[in-house]
Write a structure and sequence with these properties.
This protein is of the alpha/beta class and 137 residues long. Helix content is 30%, strand content 27%. The chain has helices spanning 12-25, 30-42, 94-99, 129-136; strands at residues 9-11, 44-46, 61-66, 71-77, 88-90, 107-111, 117-126. Strands 5-4-3-7-6 form a 5-stranded mixed sheet. A two-stranded parallel ribbon has the order 1-2. GO terms for molecular function: DNA binding; kinase activity; RNA polymerase binding. This is Nucleoside diphosphate kinase regulator. Keywords: Kinase, Transferase.
Length: 137
Amino acid sequence: MTSSSPRIIIGETDFTRLTNLAEATARSNSAVADFLMSELDRATVKPDHLVKPTTVKMGSTLTYETDHGEHRTVTLVFPVDADISRGRISILTPIGAALIGLRVGQSINWTAPNGEKHKLTIISANAEQEAFDRAAQ
């Protein structure tokens, strides 16, 4: 994280679930778990109903623009639901952890597993949180 990291907002439910996930995976995937925890530490946590649909949450389908001008549409999911061929990105990846809490128009720098630095900008976000919450139960 740098001082230029954007302000992020996370709902209480996602905050609790993601904190537990990061703590549970800290031994096996420490770099990503540490990055996710640093993102959670700097987040403003709000009641779920106060988090706008244009904020990236677990279960959000979003479109972002890469630093090369490419547009990609993905859904942010828990590891068990990840499937890159279907555009389902795990929160326990560097890009997944970078996406959580961002709002439309915000950009963030992140580092890929190969060490390359990247920047992405959120173009659109559509949260299907209620359906996602029901499916997660």
